[in-house]
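Example 9 (inverse folding). The structure is encoded as follows.
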């Protein structure tokens, strides 16, 4: 197959054969980068926490998330000659490409999972051809995952998959470790289909492409031997699906939110696992559409090198937004979405005609992830959130979890530096500075509440100051109120949605930046983003953010309100606007919501589409 980076974009992704071709399009370009002994795959030069040899094993392993279901579904490839040699040499302690001795919480544990899946689904490719000594080496190396501490979150499923695979082929395994891992996973279950990823406040795509993906695979593989647990996993996933569907837009894009965004089309892996496990929550055509449209959207983005290799980044190559554990081959975890290829072509998933999303409510209040998800047709989906926190502090944690709103159209931005608004890229955030141009935004909520019409949070930008924020979700307008108590003089900057400047730079057309209504807006043919102030304390400024700060758009502008506060108690109030593909002459920007402040009483808010005004008392 031609290794042309445009092949993916041209693939219509209509049939099972089209999806099979997509797997080969992604996998074939890696062939020249296998080591002599085939146990290592070196496809880049970026750094990560773990050493070079582990990174090469990671790349070797993650390709299998596509190849294993492809082969289980009946398509053979010449990759298995490579992988069989890689397994033989990688598990041979006498070979120079030996994968090594594990330690506690070792990255190699992550990469073992798909090898366990291969043992379950295609033992004829990875186990049966081995000699007795090679099988002994293989099983001994894999069993190391039972001998060391493992991270207490979705990693527990890696131990499950390894032991299930070893059990499948009749090799020694640890039944106690397997049962303990499954019981610990159950301890993370909340209700209504939601898990936590360990004992943590953050709930992101790991609940979908981690906890539920693995549990659904287990439910399918073990439905006869562990029927009670398997049925429980399926019921939980069916409940979760009712919330998770709101994260997707009709065009296939999804809300970027949280860490590990470089796994890209793993966003839809949950729907793939739902099909694999035979859980029919929605008609199969709807589930098929969710998977295929997400793949189509991603395949239109510049996510490959000229050689056809997946990059680290989101909608374009970008190390600024990456985590310390994002190795060169880590992005291939996206291949998990190809799981339905393990299903026969006569399965109803493949036989169904692709369908659009079902009719969804405009607002979905999701208590566990602390979100209001708001839909604005034709394809804008936003998550308003407060109270999420990742205690292990992944890079740019506050940007990934603590902004006021996350959008599939405007994306979100991460800090590139800590000096000034350009480097900070404070879209969808209130940032505060002591006058030295070093700004900080919300990092952790001390209190939060998710209510039917608003989201409340209290946070501490400084030890001796508090900000109480009320978000009133809506589309295309939403409202933010802040009550600030400070003993310091503060400069304030509050950003709206970051808007792409890419087309402006390419076409050379002047942008339509307007300053009116006590605020500022960028009104481009492809979108409008703006913010207006209701207190008279701030003025509008268009911040040209540092390149590569936004996940979706390499070059952005952020409409921002700038102000100054002396020590004391203050109210700030603004309305934020975001709309895609809007004509300047017929703009909802010209119809802002009505906000009235009555002294000693509070705020009266009339947001478009609401039947009754919302009242927020001063003493709340």
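The amino acid assigned to each position is listed next.
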């Amino acid at each position: 197959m031609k290794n042309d980076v445009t092949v993916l974009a041209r693939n219509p992704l209509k049939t099972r054969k089209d999806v099979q071709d997509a797997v080969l399009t992604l996998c074939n370009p890696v062939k020249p980068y296998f080591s002599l002994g085939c146990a290592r795959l070196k496809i880049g030069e970026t750094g990560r926490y773990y050493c070079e040899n582990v990174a090469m094993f990671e790349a070797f392993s993650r390709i299998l998330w596509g190849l294993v279901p492809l082969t289980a579904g009946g398509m053979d490839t010449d990759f298995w000659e490579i992988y069989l040699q890689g397994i033989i040499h990688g598990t041979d302690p006498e070979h120079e490409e030996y994968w090594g001795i594990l330690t506690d919480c070792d990255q190699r544990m992550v990469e073992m999972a798909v090898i366990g899946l291969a043992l379950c689904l295609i033992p004829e490719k990875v186990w049966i051809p081995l000699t007795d000594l090679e099988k002994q080496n293989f099983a001994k190396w894999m069993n190391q995952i039972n001998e060391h501490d493992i991270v207490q979150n979705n990693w527990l499923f890696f131990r499950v998959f390894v032991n299930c695979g070893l059990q499948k082929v009749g090799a020694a395994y640890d039944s106690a470790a397997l049962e303990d891992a499954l019981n610990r996973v159950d301890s993370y279950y909340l209700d209504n289909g939601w898990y936590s990823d360990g004992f943590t406040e953050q709930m992101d795509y790991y609940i979908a492409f981690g906890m539920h993906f693995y549990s659904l695979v287990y439910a399918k593989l073990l439905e006869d031997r562990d029927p009670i647990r398997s049925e429980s996993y399926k019921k939980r996933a069916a409940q979760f699906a009712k919330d998770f569907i709101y994260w997707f837009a009709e065009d296939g894009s999804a809300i970027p939110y949280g860490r590990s965004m470089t796994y890209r089309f793993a966003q839809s892996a949950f729907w793939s696992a739902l099909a694999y496990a035979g859980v029919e929550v929605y008609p199969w055509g709807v589930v098929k559409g969710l998977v295929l449209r997400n793949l189509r959207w991603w395949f239109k983005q510049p996510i490959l090198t000229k050689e056809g290799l997946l990059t680290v980044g989101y909608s374009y190559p970008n190390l600024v937004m990456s985590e310390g554990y994002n190795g060169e081959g880590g992005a291939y975890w996206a291949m998990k979405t190809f799981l339905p290829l393990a299903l026969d072509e006569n399965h109803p998933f493949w036989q169904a005609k692709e369908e659009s999303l079902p009719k969804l409510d405009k607002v979905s209040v999701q208590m566990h992830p602390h979100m209001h998800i708001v839909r604005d047709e034709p394809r804008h989906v936003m998550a308003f959130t407060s109270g999420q926190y990742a205690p292990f502090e992944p890079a740019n944690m506050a940007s990934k979890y603590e902004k006021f709103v996350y959008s599939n159209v405007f994306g979100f931005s991460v800090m590139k530096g800590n000096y000034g608004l350009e480097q900070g890229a404070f879209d969808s955030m209130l940032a505060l500075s002591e006058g030295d141009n070093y700004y900080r935004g919300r990092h952790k909520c001390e209190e939060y509440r998710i209510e039917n019409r608003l989201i409340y949070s209290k946070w501490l930008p400084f030890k001796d100051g508090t900000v109480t924020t009320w978000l009133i979700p809506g589309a295309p307008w939403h409202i933010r109120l802040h009550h600030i108590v400070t003993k310091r003089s503060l400069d304030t900057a509050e950003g709206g949605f970051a808007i792409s400047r890419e087309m402006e730079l390419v076409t050379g057309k002047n942008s339509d930046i307007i300053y009116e209504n006590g605020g500022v807006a960028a009104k481009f043919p492809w979108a409008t983003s703006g913010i207006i102030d209701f207190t008279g304390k701030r003025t509008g400024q268009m911040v040209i953010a540092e390149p590569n700060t936004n996940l979706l758009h390499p070059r952005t502008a952020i409409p921002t309100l700038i102000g100054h506060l002396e020590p004391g108690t203050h109210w700030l109030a603004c309305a934020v606007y975001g709309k895609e593909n809007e004509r300047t002459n017929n703009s909802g920007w010209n119809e802002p919501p009505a906000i009235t402040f009555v002294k000693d009483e509070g705020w009266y808010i009339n947001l478009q589409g609401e039947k009754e005004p919302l009242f927020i008392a001063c003493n709340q």
